[in-house]
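As noted in the main text, all predictions were made from sequence alone. Below is one such record, for ABC transporter ATP-binding protein.
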Amino acid sequence: MSYQIEFSGVAKRFPTKAQPEPAYAVQDLNLKISKGEVVSVIGPSGCGKSTLLNMGSGLYLPTEGAVLVDGKQVTGPVRQVAFMLQKDLLMPWRTIRRNVEIGMEIDKVPKEQRRPIAEALLKKCHLAGFEDHYPYQLSGGMRQRAALARTLAVNPDVLLLDEPFSALDAQTKMVLQQDLAATLWAEKKTALFITHDLIEAIALSDRILVMSERPGKIIEEIVVKLPHRNDPMQRRAMPEIAPIQAHLMKLLKVGDSVH
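Prediction:
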């Protein structure tokens, strides 16, 4: 079976001031994600979750093992992989439309093709009418919607999402979760999603991976056997959520939160 993204025996080491030898951030990572699958990663702060995404995108290369996208080893940034972060990183001097177009500009998509793609995505992300606004004129939730539109504009096969909604208020977060889930489902996109919100992980994912403290290793995989992955609002309302959340909290040894 072929996988969209695969981590095979992956480890990453970084130099530290405290130790003469580089220290492991993550170690012994083995992970396979099929096309159209959404996998969330949770774990304590500093366990290497973001390092995992950076290796998936080609921004970091593993010290040991290999990362593969569509069966090809990652040796640098990968065209079909897109990254979305907690900070929207919109360019303040560009309109929202032109921010969404930036990836297409880099890919040398003709100008006459960029505009309708950007406007269609902004409409899909509930930003119709704000195309000519600048980032400072939008709320945090609207800016993050624009960042999602920008991520989707390059039509990636794989989305790497690093706590993209963690800075938003609860209501805005749920709206964006709904938008993201519907898009991933409709377009059969593959996603690797980092979050510290256990309910968010359950609501959005096919599988949840729990990582240990540093050096980060995958200590358990939970398959989320619930319907409505395209509709996290419905999943949130299901009583089956509670025992999954309790199990995750037990694994993470937390009382009421995880970071």
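The chain has two domains: 1-80+158-259, 82-155. The two ends are 34 Å apart (CA to CA). These features were considered when defining construct boundaries for the mutagenesis experiments described in Section 2.9.
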